[in-house]
Amino acid sequence: MQELFRQNRKMGKPPLRWLVRKNGLPFASFLFCPDKTHKTAVLRNRSKRILRELVRKYNSVMPVGYDCALLVQVGFAKLSKEDREVLFLSALKQFP
């Protein structure tokens, strides 16, 4: 996963950023990374739960063969459900 942070393509805009890198495998892998603006474990875990739900919901439209890191700021969890989906899908449209 360290290679993902060294050699990647960035997509999206704050509060949700994607880092993607080809992995050459027949599946995609995901890493959920709340940043340091999340002051407590409760906030970090909530953001990760929200991201996992979005990835499960839109798994069928995601390309395979990539490592993906989803970086979120604390403001992401405070958005409405519809706004989070719009932000997620707008970043997904930029996918290589």
Automatic annotation (TrEMBL):
Keywords: Endonuclease, Hydrolase, Nuclease, RNA-binding, tRNA processing. It comes from the Bacteria. SUPFAM superfamilies: Ribosomal protein S5 domain 2-like. This is Ribonuclease P protein component-like protein.
